[in-house]
Write a structure and sequence with these properties.
heterodimer, A: about 280 residues, mainly alpha, MetI-like fold, 2 domains, disordered N terminus, B: about 280 residues, 13 helices, about 0% strand, globular
């Protein structure tokens, strides 16, 4: 709030206000970071330390838990499946979604309202539930229990975001730039590849990463649609009752790491992506 | 290409994809819910709702949403306004606050498990302070209140970030002139928040609430990690029907019930927070 931006003067209430403000910011940062730190301690401790009591509040930098995780039957395959599904989802949702985002930002066409409604409807729908009928449909087509089949469902999850985010990104590039390119002899296609595409590339990358994270984190559909070829989330979920604590924590840590990196990579676009898209 | 056909060509892939993987399975799931083999029937719904676990999981799901969403909204609004006037350090603080955005519900459940489990950090802290002599098994049937609290905290921790992002983006769209004018007329920061920020933020509030409420009804993995069978919720029941009981019809019926609640609340939120015609920024 604005009182905080004003330099603390000699008067006391201002100073106190600023102190409360900074304390609140620090406290809220700690609220996010401390639980993550606890997970880190558990991950970097030996299995014995993870199950011991009371806990130490500093990690002992023992790779025992992580080695156990890597050596656990089926875990590395699940990790590989997770990465594969997320990568396919990323590619599909952008190649299918981005053209629609472009169309929404550049053209007025009949049925535009209806199309936007379809997209918004998809977003306002408990999508993982669709995994139930799709399981039957996939068995019939031989897509059941495959990485590609799951990626199709995750793409359905990611597509509304891909369309709305690219719509917002394309809207941020003035159409005058394209028109200038046309007058200088570009066709619609070359104007796009030479002018718009380089400008939009970082934003597209950000929304691709967003799609990757959506798929990487998805639990329900992954658990419903895969049996042998489990993803990491599905594998961890399935073994929640039986697996030892250090396995859970190491698994949780592996799930969190890409998220930390990805959010850092897309942080500049996070707000631009939501700016126009949420109207 | 003809500019009149071009937009349709561009939206064709998405439309086809969504018809095949969204509308079609939606029809299938409805069909499955309303039939047990031959003809139209409500049997699946009767089966599901008469089961003793249904009222509990229904109540739990709604209670959890009622406890979690208002706290998240308040917290997200607070964070968004705090970040709004921040000069130095804004990017860093925003990054830290949005970290949970990328963390899955399963991972969030596991993170809070590290705190609440029997040899976990809460017990270690309490015993270090001398409050307890031996570790308490918090996540057990003896402590239903703590199980609820742990799940609620994990949800608030994980999913406030999505609301924060939407609200920060929304506040960024409010013209600064309004605040300047209000300041000239001597409005206090508190008043500026209630009279300018909140009303003009309505579209973003709509989006944030709809998205959050729908996801709150879908809560599943956090509960699986922290409460297990101690705290049944609707989505967990769907999973159990599909896998443990192999009853696809019943699973589809619960799915439709979740959908109906989601749609009901979406309409309610849109109605309460509707933006008057012609009143946009």
């Amino acid at each position: 709030m604005s009182e905080a931006t004003v330099d603390a003067g000699p008067d006391d209430p201002r100073k106190a206000g600023k102190f409360v403000y900074i304390a609140a910011v620090v406290l809220l940062c700690a609220w996010v970071l401390v639980p993550l730190y606890f997970l880190l301690i558990n991950t970097l401790s030996s299995p014995e330390a993870v199950n011991a009591f009371p806990k130490r509040f500093v990690p002992e930098f023992d790779l025992g838990s992580l080695t156990f995780f890597a050596g656990f039957e089926g875990m590395l395959v699940a990790l590989k499946n997770s990465i594969l599904v997320a990568a396919i989802t990323m590619v599909m949702s952008i190649t299918i979604g981005a053209p629609a985002g472009y169309a929404l930002s550049r053209f007025d066409f009949k049925g535009k309202g209806l199309f936007r409604l379809l997209i918004l409807l998809t977003r306002a729908f408990p999508l993982p539930l669709l995994a139930l009928p799709l399981a039957v449909m996939f068995i019939r087509t031989g897509l059941d229990d495959t990485v590609f089949g799951l990626a199709l469902v995750h793409t359905t999850l990611a597509i509304p975001f891909a369309v709305l985010i690219t719509f917002s990104l394309f809207s941020g590039i003035p159409i005058e730039l394209e028109e200038a390119a046309w007058t200088l002899g570009c066709t619609r296609l070359t104007a796009f590849t030479k002018v718009v595409f380089p400008l939009i590339l970082p934003g597209i990358t950000a929304s691709a990463i967003f799609a990757f994270v959506i798929s990487w984190n998805e639990v329900f559909a992954a658990a419903v649609l895969t049996i042998e070829n489990r993803t990491l989330t599905a594998f961890l979920l399935q073994n929640l009752d039986t697996s030892p604590l250090h396995l859970k924590f190491a698994g949780g840590f592996i799930l969190v790491v890409p998220a930390l990196i990805f959010i850092f990579a897309v942080r500049k676009y996070l707000f631009a992506m939501w700016g126009i898209a949420n109207r | 290409m003809n500019p009149r056909i071009l937009p349709y060509v561009l939206i064709l892939p998405v439309t086809l994809f969504l018809c095949l993987f969204f509308l079609y399975p939606f029809v299938l799931v409805s069909k499955q819910a309303f039939s047990t083999g031959a003809g139209f029937t409500l049997e699946n719904f009767q089966d599901v709702t008469s089961h003793w676990k249904f009222p509990i999981s229904f109540k739990n799901t709604l209670l959890l949403a009622a406890a979690v969403v208002p706290v998240q909204l308040a917290l997200a609004l607070l964070m968004a306004t705090m970040v709004n006037g921040m000069g130095r350090g804004r990017d860093l603080v925003l990054y830290v606050w949005t970290i949970p955005l990328g963390i899955s519900d399963l991972a969030a459940g596991i993170i809070w498990l590290a705190i609440f489990e029997q040899s976990g950090f809460l017990n270690s802290m309490l015993s270090g302070l001398g409050v307890i002599d031996k570790p308490v098994s918090f996540l057990s049937y003896q402590h239903p209140g703590v199980v609820f609290l742990a799940i609620a905290l994990a949800e608030i921790w994980r999913a406030t970030a999505i609301m924060l992002v939407i609200l920060v983006a929304g506040i960024g769209l409010i013209p600064k002139e309004y605040y300047e004018a209000a300041e000239v007329f001597g409005a206090s920061p508190w008043k500026r928040f209630w009279r300018i920020t909140l009303p003009l933020l309505r579209p973003s509030l709509q989006t944030a609430l709809v998205l959050r409420v729908i996801l709150a009804f879908e809560i599943f993995a956090v509960v699986a990690a922290l409460g297990g069978t101690l705290f049944p919720v609707l989505m967990g029941e769907t999973y159990a029907y599909q896998f443990e009981l192999l009853n696809g019809g019943a699973a589809a019926a619960i799915a439709l019930i979740i959908l109906a609640i989601s749609i009901g609340f979406t309409l309610l939120i849109l109605r309460i927070l509707r933006v008057p015609k012609g009143a946009s920024i």
